[in-house]
Write a structure and sequence with these properties.
51% helix, alpha+beta, 24 helices, 12 strands, 3-stranded antiparallel sheet
Length: 545
Amino acid sequence: MLSPISVGFLALSVLIALVGVFRRRSIKHIRGPPTKSRLLGHDYDLNRQDEVGDLEFSWLREYGPTWRVRGALGADGLMTADPKALQHIYQKAGANYMKKPSQNHASWIMTGPGIAWSQGEAHTRHRRIMSPAFSAARLKSFLPLFQRIGSKLVEKWKTQLMTTTGPVELMVDAWLSRATLDIIGEAAFDYDYGALDQADQSVLAKEYHGIFKDMDYRLPKTTLLFRATWDYLPWPLLKLFRYIPANPFTRMRNLNRLFAAYGKQILREKRPEFDAEKSTNSKDIMSILIKANESSDTKTRLDDEELLAEMFTLTLAGHETTATTLTFLLYELARNPEYQARLRQEIREAHSRVTERGASEFTIEDLDSIPSLLNAIKETLRMHPIASLLPRVAVQDDVIPLAHPITTTTGEVITEIPISKGQVIVTSFAAYQRLTQVWGEDADVWNPDRFTRIDVGKQTNVGVFANLMTFSAGPHSCIGWRFSVIEQQALTAELVSTFQFDLPPGTDAKNTEVIRAPSGTSMVPIVRGKPEVGTGLRLQIAFAP
């Protein structure tokens, strides 16, 4: 428990910060939805909405791509899905917009002092050191690994089908999570986690599965208010919250402790003094980072705590997010059987061309030549972004430009919004990726063919891939986005060419059992009406015709 002095200091810190909030330049002329609670603002509503985007999409239709929201503790925030505003915040003026302290502290609790937590010069150092590990040549070398693990997953599912005379129902998200965990283990650390082989017995896979839900899904009002105070508290005090003896902090500490045991063993075996020959020849991501640490320049080195944090970040972000996207991709193919059949045909035709030249496996160029495959991945990333929104804080006064003018409370039409230092801007990736002005009138429909007609060159340049914001943008964009896309191409080609995916009996495209549940800034698949069973998506699989 906090002492009375600590409680008083906490209250004083929040009070001083809130005085600063109310002295900022007002954005009250920006229209926005009313709030049910001045204390909780819209934070509680966003956390409790049935599916990601339900509220943002309705606000988008009513107010246009930019509107005002109320945060917890009464601060006004600006929420935007405007492409020009996003470009400004993440690219052109990226150094002027930082993560909220509460958001950054949550990253520290989950991963430690790694690239996901760092900001400013520290983030530049982390990214500079890690970038060579994600070069085009390096990523190309991982493709055989993706294909090998994909084939292993295929064999596991074949075994399930062999035990029955018809289709089987599988929780595909759990299987995909195991496969991507094994992939990141070998690609990042040259380490076999054995998640596919151990299946339900894999302790690490079980600890990781559903971690995003367990951290942020449907938080109580008291927890939301508690976390809102993090934006106003000093760092030394924030660090102590990691040790609160209650979930989700206990859940996260247990995972940190479990992974630290793996991480320290991997680090020890990666050191040149442990196995000099293996250290010299290893091509995995961690070996590259350890070699960088041989430099005498401190700006090109990471200490052991930072290395462990990078390992944790790579394992968490590198497998659960990709597995969730693949889960929704298979779900959409099950809902769209005609597109699934066309994709399977294109994959098989491409493989025939591979065998004709005397090869047995796809190259990256082969995978890129299958338009229905890449378009299906793009469309799934658009419709089901893992990160649905991200808040940013202006570190100095600025003017945010708008591609799409909005009407203020006084009826004035404006094309830019002046803001003050400290202003919170909530960038809605989910709403941006439903803008009809960008994606067409059918933006609410899963339609991969839209990418054959869209001229990205005529759009405002925003994201790093297909002009989507799913991987964020600018200097803080996902460093492993290419890794994830190639992995998805390889695994989808293996699975769709072998299996047919259908919705379970009793469900159809309009009556499914899965919802895209909000969990903090993330989205997770949850069985409708059964959040207690955790994340999950059940599909029926059979051998493809």
